[in-house]
Structure formats: structure tokens, C-alpha cells
Amino acid sequence: MIRFFRKALAALAALPLIAGCSAAAPVAAEPKPALWKVADADTTIYLFGTIHVLPKDYRWRTGPFDAALTKADSLVLEIVVDNEEAQDGKAMQALALAHGLPPLLERVPAAERPALKAMVDESQIPIASLDRMDTWAAALSLASTTMAGLNLSAENGIERQLTANFRAAGKPIAGLETTAQQLGYFDALPEPVQREFLGAVIKSDGNADAEFARMIAAWSSGDTKAIAATFDDEMKDSPELSAILLERRNARWAAWLKTRLKTPGTVMVAVGAGHLAGPDSVQAMLAKDGIKVTRLQ
What is the pTM of this model? Predict the structure, then answer.
């Protein structure tokens, strides 16, 4: 279940900024993260699957990607990452306050309470503060402390790197969503599903480093089947979460891309790689509307 929890976090751009991540991953011998193109007579949209956290100096860029980057007039991300730490804090404060919930320890089965208590003590977060949080927010807060100090960072993630490129070139950057909107997906989860998240954090099996290494290896090699398997195998444990974090968002983004084709120009759209893999991917939804998507890398 902890694997499911971490894949859910990886599905969102904002959450790795809160939750941190894992250790160094192997660099692909010949990196080629997946890149697609959607185009008509006067519009070109490059679709790039990102990974939100990476080790420092991880090698992933290629000639085809850099060519697309140079051609793009603007960048569209899941969220605009400038100053998101302050936004995250405000969004958490606005959404995380619990109403009518029991103390945190009472939200898990009795057998799990000693482990949760030990985790709370180690986190040094006052239990009174966690008691006042919604279950999803308490789970994220605890996850952030247990994962702190590991080698992956959103500072090295693709969104940060692309933002720096486009800012330096004076090109505009926009977001498909906001931090508050992304955190709101968790806030909207039914309480039993939120408690599944909390239980997943408690039951961490210590394999996060290896799991994230496999995720990064699949991403850097452009292995969309492996990426899809990572998300599909885990998300099917919770159809509600899959619908909220993947399917509905992919449908909205596909609709946005279809509309964007009506505006001339060249844009790079960079979203988490899990959204561009599998039967419910953005490309699959575009194809249902008769829009051709060409893989460039």
C-alpha cells in the first residue's frame, strides 16, 4: 500500500514539493524521455512527460528535446512552480483544518497506533497540530518528515529546469492547475480513502529508494509501458483516487489541448509522465476526438 501512496503523490506536481522523495537513480545509457507532437496548419504543441524530482546533475536532455524547446514560444506546466512554497503553505492552511474528526491516533486501527505514535514522535510535529488536520494533510506532513534528507529534490526536477530556461529566454509560462486545486483533490477524497493514505505512510516498507529509482529509469528511457504499469498497477487499488488524480485531469487537459490548437503558435506542454502513458492517457483521449499525436522521441 505504501507504493500506491507514493505513486499517488508522484501523480501531482505540487506534492513532491511538500513530501520530498528518494535517493539517486541510475542514468539511462542513452536517455530519451518521451516526447510527442500535436499539430495543425498553424499550431504545434509539444507534449513532454516529466518527472517532478531528480538527483542533482541527472543527465536527460537530448537533441530532439532541445530542438523542440528552442521552437516553443511558451511553456505550460501542471502548475507554475515560481514561489510555490509560499502558495503550498497557504493552500495547506486553507484546506487542512479538520472538522469533527477524532484525534489522529483514533483514525487508524488499534494495531497501527503504536507505529503511528512513534512516527509522530520522530517527526517532532506536535500531536495537537496533527489532530487538527484533515487526515490527508496529516499523512502528507508525516511523509514529509520521514522522507526528508533523501537525495531527490524538486529543485532538480524537470519543471524547475524548464522554468529556468523559459524565464531566461523571456518566454511566458502558464499552469493548467494551481497548488490549491491540486491539494484540493486530496481534500475531496472520502475519509476512508484518506485513512488509507495515512495507513500507507505508517506501513512504509523502506523500499522507496528502489521504487523511485525504477520510476526514474523508466521515465529517462521513455518506457511508457513501464510508466503505465507503475501507475495502473497501483491506482487500481483505489478507483476513486485514479479517477480524481488521473482520469478526470487527463480529460480536462485533453480538452484544453484541443482548444489550444485553435490558437496559432508553438507551445511546450510538460506534465507528469504518468499522464502520458496508459489507456487513459492524454494522448488516448485526444485520439478519441480524432486528433493525431505523433511520438518524436
Answer: 0.82
